[in-house]
TrEMBL record, chain A:
Keyword Oxidoreductase among record annotations: yes
Species this chain originates from: Natrinema longum
InterPro entries on file: Ald_Oxase/Xan_DH_a/b (IPR000674), Ald_Oxase/Xan_DH_a/b_sf (IPR036856), Ald_Oxase/xanthine_DH-like (IPR016208), AldOxase/xan_DH_MoCoBD1 (IPR008274), AldOxase/xan_DH_MoCoBD2 (IPR046867), AldOxase/xan_DH_Mopterin-bd_sf (IPR037165)
Protein name as annotated: Xanthine dehydrogenase family protein
Alphabetized GO MF terms: iron ion binding; oxidoreductase activity
Chain positions covered by the region annotation Disordered: 1-27
Keywords tagged on the record: Molybdenum, Oxidoreductase
Start-end of Basic and acidic residues biased regions: 1-20
SUPFAM superfamilies per UniProt: CO dehydrogenase molybdoprotein N-domain-like, Molybdenum cofactor-binding domain
Domain (Aldehyde oxidase/xanthine dehydrogenase a/b hammerhead): residue spans on this chain: 45-155
UniProtKB/TrEMBL annotation, chain B:
PANTHER family per the UniProt record, alphabetical: OXIDOREDUCTASE WITH IRON-SULFUR SUBUNIT (PTHR44379:SF5)
Iron-sulfur found in the keyword field: yes
Domain of life: Archaea
The species this protein was found in: Natrinema longum
Pfam family, one: Fer2_2
Xref: Gene3D superfamilies: 3.10.20.30, [2Fe-2S]-binding domain
Molecular function terms, GO-annotated: 2 iron, 2 sulfur cluster binding; metal ion binding; oxidoreductase activity
SUPFAM superfamilies assigned to the protein according to its UniProt record, in alphabetical order: 2Fe-2S ferredoxin-like, CO dehydrogenase ISP C-domain like
Keyword Metal-binding attributed: yes
Parts forming coiled coils: none
Protein's name in the database: (2Fe-2S)-binding protein
């Protein structure tokens, strides 16, 4: 049997457990309940310790001088005056830093070299040129003003379409191994099925030149690190708010030129990430480099301009040239053709992982069997791309849904019916899509029905018709989108025919200890970044060990004590940590039953674990509480049966429940993102055609994230993600100027949505089709809001402007853009 | 060696009822004074240029951006920070309302939101949605999508107005002033 033919039963057998559906569906005690969010009390009272709250004795503060030019050679740096300043400890150039600290880790192959401080050449505005350590941040910034840098300007490229033609001095990385003297980082095409024939035979082909603008996660807390270097042991300790510290943190050691056991990364709670702190290795590496040179602990906290111009967390920046969908007259979708140009900016840390991600759900919830997807990634003089909620698949949702709306228009079909007619049906799962990825389960019709009903869709259509008669422009958008969850790392590299580091692991770990008095201490191996890991862990442990949540304490491992954990990202964490916790608690359960059977002089088969104790079934007075069992396990080895051994603790590392390798020749990319969530979003908006302002009248979203662990926290993800999707759709963009300057490098000019720009009330619903492959049937849900809102809002605007002949092909649809569209039509 | 520093001035600021007398440079920000000199790290800095409200504190009862205020400007003033509200075991009704209505996720914007809410409810104990949006409109939250914060503020108003009825639980008003 080939791996990609596996069924849920095969997966279950591999895991040695029955599929979730057949176990305890609907019988959970704690899972699915709104227990109080465990993280809240310390965050609400100002007692949460974020990275900038870390203070070490004799700590110095760093500030960074950044390039004012988009592209230039560094000719000379004069730091002498800065060094003279009272309180300045260290002034370090890129060249000096590179004597000990090597290039940053990258997935690109051949690698695109990047350093924590630029050497020789700067490639975007904001790139670090010199770093200073001083007694306080004020003095460090004073010192920056006394540094003189002589640059020789090079031509800047900031338009991806022009980057295709770049030559000579315009080429950003002329020294890249097998660099073909161009700004094209990577070009590749994936085909499956018979796209050419399907397009030739189709009755209708819709084609759109879509544009997705560059925006970013913009958490309220920037990235920071506090590093110390112990000269005695040669060991670094780095306090940081990076996310993947137990996954890729070891690479920082390689960069610093020390063995991996010579760094310990200590996680701090993060004030939001949305993907932007996934790696963020540059900041930790910089702080560690400075600490080693300065001989004292160093804190570096990005300010907002540092973060926007140079934290490498910008999202996708794409031109579709074009995107096309082929259909039959009756609306049957046949094939999809995509030609996308993506502006990756000055460096290439995740390669085209974003398009790997898009391939996970390239055909959405629809039965489209042929695809032709061509990606061209180029280098420009902008900050490099990183991860932002959706990691590229949110763009694919936008593209597909826009094409379907265009098709409905062309075929004069109802856009809701067109979608419904093409849905994959519940009995067709597991369903393999043309890229090779598998969808585990779903019921798209049920989600659509629930949303239409909650949204009072028919009623709104009537109101819309009435309003139109009064000259008002109300619009309703309907989209049905996927939320792929639980990634396999193959997506980072399978577009590359010759990857350097074709990683395939993406596990998550958990450790559980029951102490002498029966209290649980749970250790997670990935950080808090604004999600609810402590709440999830508390619920799973309470469920499995029948414990009171009050008796469960959750903390976070550093890398010294850490086990393999991949961390939040790709809507994976709840699924994966639940699997890890289930594995750890079941070992503990087993030992507790062994001890209890001995204490109660009963057969294990007759025992049950309920309400914090193990009882003999049918004899409720014969019971022993977890505290007594725990004390026995810790303190009374001689009273236990032979071979049981002291202690009551377990670790478990849970691997992805179902992934496979891509084919050698990439005819099939394998199964890499099979836990498939789904959503339907229906915004109702009104456009003021005089001013171009858009107002929300209503917003309904129904998600299927499989089994819901905590409805309130999931709802928070949906409303928060939707607000970010609204930002993407209507307001946000890093607007690089032709010369590479970035005027939107601050919050006065980069418009984040405020209280006034989003709905003040959402109707949120859930449909639960449990995943047959994950513990408890959970699917991911962390990114969905931002994956559904942009196409839904674009559809609603187009619908509102029906009296005008406009099509929404480009985001953000600012008021200015609305007016331009209307004016163009009027002319 | 040279120096850009300017002669420090002596100031006295009362923070959460405690008096702090310090020598500070005139350019020192109130946010740094609170966080670093006094060590109250509950006040967070999101943008450092006055655009997000994360750093809001109450100065003589009015919210100010502590990242745009110099410590010397607060000489003689009474400052309230998030630490003046409740504690983990004894939360202020506004904190309780945010807790129960999921008015936070990462918690970074939260201190500013709580203090802006306190200012609002002291002026207008029963605000409608528009008044809430108006009062909190210059505070940015990137996590929640705002609707849960609006619900939290409504719930806080109810709790403060009719503490006995809200949630029907025993309620603490400790930390309230
Ligand atoms: S940190 Fe002061 S307003 Fe943003
Ligand atoms: S809770 Fe994270 S920014 Fe508001």
């Amino acid at each position: 049997m080939s791996k990609s033919d596996r069924t849920p039963d095969d997966i279950a057998e591999k895991r040695n457990k029955p599929p979730a559906e057949e176990t305890e569906d609907g019988e959970f005690e704690v899972i699915g309940k709104n227990i109080d969010r465990v993280e809240n009390p310390r965050l609400l009272t100002g007692r949460g310790e974020y990275i900038d709250d870390v203070q070490l004795a004799n700590m110095g503060h760093a500030a960074v001088l950044r390039s004012p030019h988009a592209h230039a050679r560094i000719v000379d740096i004069d730091t002498s005056e800065a060094e003279q300043l009272d309180g300045v400890d260290l002034v370090l150039t890129g060249e000096e830093a590179a004597e000990k600290t090597g290039p940053l880790p990258t997935f690109s192959s051949p690698p695109v070299e990047q350093y924590c401080i630029a050497k020789d050449r700067v490639r975007h505005v904001g790139e670090a040129v010199v770093a200073v350590v001083a007694d306080d941040r004020y003095v460090a910034e004073d010192a920056l003003e006394r540094i003189d840098v002589e640059y020789e300007q090079l031509p800047a490229v900031t338009d991806a379409r022009e980057a295709l033609e770049s030559e000579g001095e315009e080429v950003l990385h002329p020294d890249r191994e097998d660099g073909h003297d161009s700004n094209v980082y990577l070009q590749n095409t994936f085909t499956a099925g018979d796209p050419d024939d399907e397009f030739a035979d189709a009755d209708v082909v819709v084609s759109r030149e879509l544009r997705w603008p560059r925006s970013g996660g913009q958490p309220m807390e920037t990235v920071g690190a506090v590093a110390e270097y112990d000269e005695g042991t040669g060991k670094f300790t780095i306090h940081a708010n990076t996310s993947m510290y137990n996954y890729m943190g070891w690479l920082i050691a390689t960069t610093l030129g020390v063995s991996t056991n010579k760094i310990n990364i200590v996680p701090k709670i993060a004030g939001g990430s949305f993907g932007s702190k996934l790696f963020a290795h540059k900041v930790s590496t910089l702080a560690a480099t400075l600490a080693r040179e300065a001989g004292r602990p160093v804190k570096f906290i990005e300010d907002r301009v540092d973060n926007i111009t140079s934290c490498d967390n910008h999202g996708s920046d794409r031109y579709y040239r074009p995107a096309e969908l082929a259909l039959d007259e009756d609306g049957t979708m046949r094939a999809l053709r995509i030609d996308v140009l993506d502006d990756y900016g000055a460096y290439f840390q995740f390669e085209v992982g974003h398009h790997g991600n898009a391939m996970a759900q390239v055909t959405g919830p629809y039965t489209i069997e042929s695809i032709d997807y061509s990606v061209t990634a180029v280098a420009t003089n902008k900050s490099q791309q990183g991860a932002y909620r959706g990691f590229g698949s949110e763009v694919q949702n936008f593209v597909l849904e826009r094409l379907i709306d265009a098709a409905a228009d062309e075929l004069e079909m109802d856009p809701v019916e067109l979608r419904r007619e093409n849905f994959i049906q519940p009995e067709e799962f597991p369903y393999k899509i043309p890229s090779g990825n598998m969808y585990d389960s779903g019921d798209y019709e049920a989600v659509l029905e629930e949303t239409l009903e909650l949204a009072n869709y028919e009623e709104w259509r009537e109101k819309q018709a009435d309003a139109r008669e009064d000259g008002r422009h109300i619009g309703i958008g309907v989209v049905t989108c996927q939320e792929r969850s639980v990634f396999s790392s193959t997506e980072f590299w399978f577009w590359n025919d010759d990857p350097d580091f074709p990683i395939t692991s993406s596990p998550e770990s958990a450790s559980v200890k029951i102490d002498e008095t029966g209290q649980a201490i749970v250790t997670l191996h990935s950080p808090f970044w604004g999600n609810s890991p402590e709440t999830v862990a508390t619920q799973i442990v309470a469920e499995e060990l029948a414990m009171d949540p009050e008796n469960i304490e959750v903390n976070y491992a550093d890398t010294d004590s850490g086990l393999k954990g991949t961390g939040p990202g790709g809507s994976r964490y709840t699924v994966m940590v639940s699997g890890a916790l289930e594995g750890a608690t079941s070992q503990i359960q087993e030992k507790m039953f062994t001890i209890a059977a001995d204490m109660l002089e009963a057969a294990q088969e007759d025992l049950e674990l309920e309400e914090g104790e193990i009882r003999v079934r049918g004899a409720p007075d014969k019971s022993v509480g977890i505290p007594e069992i725990a004390m026995q396990a810790h303190a009374f080895e001689l009273d236990m049966p032979d071979g049981v051994g002291s202690g009551l603790a377990a670790d478990h590392t849970y691997d992805h429940p179902y992934t496979t390798m891509p084919d050698e020749d990439r005819e099939d990319m394998g199964v890499f993102y099979p836990i498939m969530g789904h959503m339907c979003h229906i915004p109702v908006i009104e456009v003021d055609v005089e001013t171009g302002k858009i107002e929300f009248l209503d917003y309904t979203a129904v998600h299927d994230c499989g089994t819901v662990v905590n409805p309130e926290t999931l709802k928070g993800h949906i409303t928060g993600g939707t607000a970010q999707g609204i930002g993407t759709a209507l307001y946000e963009e890093y607007q690089y100027q032709p010369d590479g300057q970035l005027p939107t490098d601050n919050y006065h000019d980069y418009p984040l949505p405020t209280f006034h720009d989003v709905p003040d009330d959402y109707t949120i619903g859930h449909v639960e089709t449990p995943s047959p492959w994950t513990e408890y049937g959970i699917k991911g849900g962390g990114e969905g809001g931002r994956m559904g809102a942009p196409p839904a809002i674009a559809a609603a605007i187009e619908d509102a402007l029906e009296p005008y002949d406009v099509s929404i092909d480009e985001l953000p649809v600012t008021p200015k853009r609305v007016r331009e569209l209307i004016r163009t039509d009027e002319e | 060696m040279t120096s850009d520093t300017i002669e420090p001035e002596s100031i006295t600021i009362t923070i959460n009822g405690e008096e702090y007398e310090r020598e500070v440079e005139p350019r020192r920000l109130l946010s740094d004074f609170i966080r670093e000199d006094v060590g109250l790290t509950g006040t967070h800095v999101g943008c450092e240029h006055g655009a997000c409200g994360t750093c809001n504190v109450l100065m003589d009862g009015q919210t100010v951006r502590s990242c745009l205020t110099f410590a010397v400007q607060a000489d003689g003033a009474e400052i309230e920070t998030v630490e003046s509200l409740g504690t983990v075991d004894d939360m202020h009704p506004i904190q309780e309302a945010f807790h129960e209505n999921h008015g936070l996720q990462c918690g970074f914007c939260t201190p500013g939101m709580l203090l802006s809410t306190k200012e609002l409810l002291e002026e207008n104990p029963d605000p409608d949605r528009e008044a809430i949006k108006e009062a909190l409109g210059a505070n940015v939250c990137r996590c929640t999508g705002y609707a849960p914060i609006i619900e939290s503020v409504e719930a806080a108003a109810e709790r403060i107005q009719a503490p006995a009825e809200a949630e029907g639980e025993e309620l603490s008003t400790a930390g309230d002033d």
